[in-house]
Amino acid sequence: METLENGVNKKDLNRETILQIAQDIFSKYGYKKTTLDDIANAVRKGKSSLYYYFNSKEDLFQAVIVKEVEILKEALEKVVFRSMDPEEKLREYILTKLSTFRGLANLYNALENDVTAIGFIDEIKEKNEKDEIRMIKRILIEGVRRDKFNIDDLNLTAIGITTAMKGLEMPLSAGNYGNFDIEMSVDNIVRIICYGIMKRD
After folding, report:
1. Does the fold of domain 62-195 match that of domain 1-54?
2. Cβ atoms of residues 118 and 26 within 8 Å
3. Whole-structure pTM value
4. What tens digit of pLDDT does each residue of 140-158 get?
5. Straight-line distance from the first to the last Cα atom of the chain, in angstroms, rounded to the nearest whole number
6. Residue 17 CB burial class (10 angstroms; 0-12, 13-18, ≥19)
7. Residue closest to 94 by CA, chosen among 67, 132, 130
8. Closest by CA position to 100, among listed 26, 165, 155
């Protein structure tokens, strides 16, 4: 197996190149309209070369989605393990989740729009939701331990926060970034989560 100077083998490098190009094409045209010929042409290889790395269009799309899931998970875990005030961490988590989604169009469409009748999507959606609740819960537990949050039901609160985040994802998916102030929206949600909506004297 041919190995390049930096120790990366050529097969892995070719696979990664195909993945990056496929990620871009799927995000522009969607799963249904994209063909393996489109991707092969963009990669400047024959379609048979794609079959060396991926069994089908679905297999390639799954690899793209898995890659995007990992990008999102890594970005969020960095926030979760950062040393900072729990309220600020919650804000940073929501902000990171929403801003990272901007570059992950395939993942968003697969999870939210159900445009593809593909078996693996349901499994990824379920795992993604569980991971989301687990990470939010970890921040909440830290806030309770540090006497910053007063929460009766951690699980229900974590589910509520993930649901609120979904509401903010909609303007992002439509591409209206210019008309949508993410930071202000996140600040408002965090303020409601941490202080409620009741008027205080």
Report:
1. no
2. no
3. 0.78
4. 999 999 999 988 999 999 9
5. 72
6. middle
7. 132
8. 165
State the sign of the Cα–Cα–Cα–Cα dihedral 27, 166, 151, 183.
positive
All structural domains of the chain with their residue ranges: 1-54, 62-195
Q: Please tell me whether residue 32 adopts helix, strand or coil conformation.
A: helix
Q: Which residues pair with 9 in a beta bridge?
A: 3
Please give the torsion angle defined by the CA atoms of residues 44, 46, 47 and 48, in that order, rounded to the nearest 10 degrees: -140
Tokens 């959606």 — which residue? Answer: 125
Cβ-proximal residues to 198 (8 Å cutoff; 6+ apart), any chain? none
Is 62-195 a CATH 3.40.50.960 domain?
A: no
Give percent helix, percent strand, percent coil of the chain, each to the nearest 5.
Answer: 75, 0, 25
Q: With respect to CATH, is domain 1-54 assigned 3.40.50.80?
A: no
Q: Whole-number mean pLDDT of the chain?
A: 82
